[in-house]
TrEMBL record:
The chain crosses the membrane at residues 5-21, 33-58, 78-101, 113-130, 137-153, 173-193. The keyword Transmembrane helix applies. This is DUF1405 domain-containing protein. Keywords: Membrane, Transmembrane, Transmembrane helix. InterPro entries: DUF1405 (IPR009845). It comes from Paenibacillus agricola. It comes from the Bacteria. It holds the Pfam family DUF1405.
Length: 204
């Protein structure tokens, strides 16, 4: 199961960066290469989750197995918090944008259905390994700051993912929805931490 998820996420990440290729090139030519990190939102989220799975695969070969709350390094916790927040956020965001565009008249093709299924999977898998995450509050804070900075770069600097044509005149609403979804995702990561602590106490 873990190996399947690892390869699905890794290949999806590569395809996602390819999907953003034209926007990456345009950003480089018209703005600055320094902005590139803020352009491909969904692929970067799936890259974070690929990292989470890599850590879980590493754990599966370690004996004895560690408690989910045992400290395993700040970097791992940060990757996990980033994966939870961004995977849930952009999973829901992408599906919402696709079908909001369709509601306003954009045509729906097979790629939209593929993106819908894959992004719903992103949102779901962020919740899948709740018991095995190790992140703490400090990791949530850093991941939250990154997520909100990304929102600023998207809608303050114009680096947001290209939208369906019918949503071009709704950018203010899209920006507000995105920021609200960021806060929902950040709160969700904190709630998951509290649930994990509660489950671990009951297990003891």
């Amino acid at each position: 199961m873990l190996w399947s998820l690892f390869w699905v996420n890794l290949l999806g990440t590569i395809y996602g960066y390819y999907w953003y290729w034209d926007q990456l090139v345009l950003t480089t030519e018209s703005m600055s290469p320094g902005y590139l990190i803020f352009v491909p939102d969904s692929p970067t989220a799936s890259l974070f989750f690929t990292g989470v799975i890599a850590y879980l695969l590493f754990d599966s070969y370690q004996k004895p197995k560690r408690s989910s709350l045992q400290a395993t390094g700040w970097f791992r916790g940060l990757i996990e918090a980033l994966a939870v927040i961004t995977s849930f956020k952009y999973g829901i965001w992408a599906v919402t944008m696709i079908w909001a565009g369709a509601y306003q008249g954009d045509s729906v093709n097979w790629q939209d259905w593929m993106l819908t299924v894959s992004h719903l999977g992103m949102a779901a898998e962020a919740l899948l390994y709740l018991r095995l995450y190790t992140y703490r509050v400090n990791a949530i804070i850093v991941a939250a700051l990154w997520t909100l900075l990304n929102d600023y770069m998207d809608y303050g600097m114009g680096l947001f993912p290209w939208l369906p044509a019918s949503l071009d005149d709704d950018l203010t609403i899209v920006a507000a929805f995105t920021i609200q979804l960021s806060f929902i995702s950040i709160i969700l990561s904190w709630v998951m931490l509290q649930v994990r602590k509660l489950l671990d106490k009951r297990k003891v």
